[in-house]
Amino acid sequence: MLITLDATPLLGRRTGIGRYVEHLLGALAARSEQDGLELQASTWTWRGAELSGLPAHVRPVGRRVPARLLRELWTRADLPVIETLVGATDVFHGTNFVSPPTRRAREVVTVHDLTYVEHRETVDAATLAYERLVARSVARGATVLTPSRTVAAAVRAHYDLPQDAVAVTPLGVDDAWFEAAAPSASWLQERTLPDRYVVFVGSLDPRKNLPRLLQAHEQARRTDPSLPDLVLAGPAGRATPDGVGPAVHLTGWLSDEDLRTLVGGASGLVLPSLDEGFGLPAIEAAAAGVPVLASDLAVLHEVAAPDTVFAPPTDVDALSGALLHLAQARRTPDADDARRAWARQFTWQACAAATLAAYATGRS
């Protein structure tokens, strides 16, 4: 089976979707010989960025074409077909909402969430275009992959799709998260970080709900001044959002290793999003043995560890109270091991197996 994946999310700094594509490609490549797979990776870019560090058995293909132009064309017509850009292929997997029309190849598209439908006010015009792009894909018979059962149900309902048109391919956790260790005192001092902290890993995207988290943290500190400081990591750690006070710290850009170290030493991780497709930071924190405060969303109830503290994301008072509750959680060996045991069920090997099954049995 010749499989081509859109690897555009691998260009530049890795977002959550970039990590999904990276690990899915790696897990597929690991089983390519035993399963008789040929793997190709394409990108849509006019600026000349090239893929690097692809796994063995994955070759780059495709012409240099502007992504914006392709999306404009594909929102209006079923041209150009993917074979004119990458050559013949049995399957084309659009890994990031955008699935091109095909001449003969099976069309597969990953829909990570329905933010462009359910939280339209939080996204830009490029993201709003997913509504038409995904609708055209499913009308052509594309198989939809989603990272959770919650998103799968929402996609089936919104696009009026049958059960077998959508496959759930839960994300995995990098094995290195299970070895995450707390930082040394010198590591924290070098980065001007406190000894005790809770951590937020995410962006300034409105759906990540950072302004309410900052309000809730300030309010909780007024109730209990001993509450751990808040550390903002990921893209949010590289900018200064409104509401940052002396008990809030920004990390700047962190390598994957440093991010694991930061999370591994946290009193807790906070994921207060208005919407999530999966909530990978909650699983990564559990793999590191770290307790989590998460939004009271169906998808996070689906994937987060059993001892997760939940709070309505739009209720600042509730988030404040949940932060106080999270601060009382204790990092005991038994509790940490229970969280790690929960996280071990999420593997990239299982994600790849479910994805391959969809390639083989999806709609034609």
Automatic annotation (TrEMBL):
Residue span(s) of domain Glycosyltransferase subfamily 4-like N-terminal: 16-176
Keyword Repressor: no
Listed name of the protein: Glycosyl transferase
Xref: CDD domains: GT4_MtfB-like
One Gene Ontology term of the molecular function aspect: glycosyltransferase activity
UniProt entry keywords in alphabetical sequence: Glycosyltransferase, Transferase
InterPro entries in the cross-refs: Glyco_trans_4-like_N
GO biological process: lipopolysaccharide biosynthetic process
SUPFAM superfamilies: UDP-Glycosyltransferase/glycogen phosphorylase
Record Gene3D superfamilies: Glycogen Phosphorylase B
